[in-house]
User: Fold this.
Amino acid sequence: MKIIKKGESKYPNKLLEVESPPKQLYVEGDESLLNNDSIAIVGSRKASSYGKQCAKIFAREISRAGFTVVSGLAIGIDSIAHIYSMNEMGKTIAVLGSGLNNIAPKENYYLYKQILENGGCVVTEYPPEEQENKVNFPRRNRIISGLAMGVLLVEAKYRGGGSITARQAIKQRKEVFCIPNRIDEKNGYSTNLLIKEGANLVTCPQDILDFYTEDLEIQTDKIPDEYKNIYDLISELPISANEIAKILNKPIAEVSQTLSMLEIEGLIQNIPGNKYIRST
Assistant:
């Protein structure tokens, strides 16, 4: 087990964006995955056959495309996301709501071992002896969304854990992708609602891959490494230089200079209110 403290070089920059970033992370496996380009796949514990099949297809193809798959080691959609990403020789991250000496749920202890044996990563903000506690699970969801570039919600009931993760992603200015469902299906309530509220409706993995391919090419081809942490915070939702400086704990002058460079390159736009969005 490794402990990565906030402020250390291995601490994932993406988690600095979340509300109340974890002060430390307890990690088993390959900690370098925490800084990979990742997609979170989450959903109902009591998954339908439709949801299971969708989760298999999306986890497999997203993993094949080179993304790390993040989920919560729960029964149902989470388990399928981990298993089918590993089946494609991909990497997966499991975020726990308990300590590493108390893997929860107990039914997934073997899956936890498989993830580590296949070069994956298991991470939690809770100390090793922390017991399973329902209060912890909604909090850990901010880490699932925080580590990911975007969140795919396969299916979820009203106020289900997956929908909490999706809501956390929206707060963190991340993209949310939802698979539509029948209007009379309880497991389709949250996905359909989020689509109505503006989440991305997806019907195949390529919908997600197309969304990020161009964005990743821009980052690789045009953005110097020292600017990426600031560029990564800018999305279609406006954000100010002061907000960025606060998230990254950087001087406002340094942030403003980087924003000016990104704007000159045509990668971002300054909009009314002195806020920034990505260029389309």
In short: The two ends are 43 Å apart (CA to CA).
